[in-house]
Design brief:
Structural class: alpha/beta
Strand order of the largest sheet: 1-2-4-3-5-6-7-8
Distance between the termini: 18 Å
Radius of gyration: 16 Å
Number of helices: 6
Amino acid sequence: MSATTTKMTMSDGAEIAVYHAQPEGTRRGGLVLVQEIFGVTDHIRSLCDGYAADGFEVLAPAVFDREHPGFEAEYSGEGFARGVELASKLHPFELTLADVQTCIDSLADKGPVFVVGYCYGGSVAWKAATSLRGVAAVSGYYGSMIPDAADEEPKVPTILHFGKKDDHIPLAGVEKVIAKDWANATVYLYDAGHGFNSDRRDDYDAESAKLAKQRTLDLFAANGG
């Protein structure tokens, strides 16, 4: 498996860094992997490498590059505060969606394209399912903005992963998503906290992470990947 960080020109003319991992073996499809608020960190790159090992060509755009080139932060302290500032104040959410669309479009002529996202990226993944074109299926992990967008129906098969012990996303909000009972959406609850997929975090839960990954791969396989 080979991976490089390259520059891609986005719809607004900006050039941002994109981590690009090539698939091992038979190519199963394209995948846009959307970061947490902490940037395209070593953890995000390792997730990309994992999906590439599973047969996907993966693009992970560094969506905060316009405001803070090369941003990578720890999960606490000043880095965390800067990530929150970038995601909530400085960087337009719609611009992230536009960058994801550019990445989708760049992969579209090779086969099905999927989207997966974590934390901030989980919210982006939900919006990709409801509003972006050229997406075959979506997997979103603990996106805090999803409950407020629960009224938006996914256009493509979508699965969502939330922790029952998530201190950042009240269970009532998740239940709001579940209650919508969208035909294309399935919500999974895990006995874990926020960020349970990251082995760099205190809330890491290996069993939940393994199950969520398998469900994601199964979803992609059922939709052409």
